[in-house]
Amino acid sequence: MKLKKYVLTLFYVVSATAVVSAQYKEPEKKDKVEVFRPEMAFDSLLAKKMLARGTAVIKGVAFTRQKHPLGYGVPLSPRILANKIKIVLFPVTPYFEEWYQLRKDKESIRRKRFVYLSDQAYRYRLEAITNSDGEFTFPDMKPGKYFLQGMLDYTLRGTYNAYTGSGYNNYGGRTDYYEKKEYYKNKEDRIEAFVEVKENGEMVKVKLH
């Protein structure tokens, strides 16, 4: 009887070990990451042609505005200028249009769903660095449609009422006491805009926010 019990216990131990070291392991739902890709092939010749030298200029200013901790905008909040950040310009090819639409439809950071831009497509880009006023320039541009993007880091600042204790007033009721305190939270905003150059020699101005 003892031998049978020992064999049965050993079987459970071996079985449990087999599950841990199995060839396939189902991830927890919260750990699943979904990656989507455009079906269209990337046309490198078209992208290269769109980024050839022209005589137009794209000038812009990059900024964001402080948002509420819950994510919605704060009316009349001052601009937070993009101080010395990188602005990336992509030619809007049919591949890129599919990628952008797919991102609008599918991407969700909270649900861990992401849309992949191919390494080849990412190589065909131009870059500019803003000054301390958030201003940037892309010279020598050809007529065409372009997509601008930057990642702007800033510190969210706000106040909250911190509970400091309670006491009883002269009428026998309880009074709670609060003290206003500041909080700081690091944020990163993805600022984006489409811009179109219609003809050579023109200057196109854009607000990137």
State the helix count. Answer: 4
> What would CATH call the architecture?
Sandwich
Radius of gyration: 28 Å
Q: Specify the biggest β-sheet.
A: 4 strands, mixed
Q: β content, as a range?
A: 35-45%
Shape: flat
Under CATH at level 1, the class stands as Mainly Beta
In CATH terms, the superfamily is: Immunoglobulins
Q: The CATH topology, please?
A: Immunoglobulin-like
Task: Write down the domain tally.
Answer: 1
The helical percent reads 10-25%
Q: Which consecutive residue ranges, at least 5 long each, have pLDDT under 50?
A: 6-17
Short summary:
With 209 residues, the chain is an alpha+beta fold.
What does this structure look like?
It is a single chain. With 209 residues, this protein is α+β, with helices and mostly antiparallel strands. It has one domain: Immunoglobulin-like, CATH 2.60.40. Helix content is 21%, strand content 44%. It is built from four helices and ten strands; from the N terminus they run H-E-H-E-E-E-H-E-H-E-E-E-E-E. It has helices at 2-20, 44-50, 94-106, 119-123; strands at 34-36, 56-65, 79-81, 86-91, 113-115, 126-129, 135-141, 144-168, 174-197, 203-208. Mean pLDDT is 86; it is low at 6-17. Residues 1-22 form the signal peptide.
How are the secondary structure elements laid out?
Blueprint: H1 2-20, E1 34-36, H2 44-50, E2 56-65, E3 79-81, E4 86-91, H3 94-106, E5 113-115, H4 119-123, E6 126-129, E7 135-141, E8 144-168, E9 174-197, E10 203-208
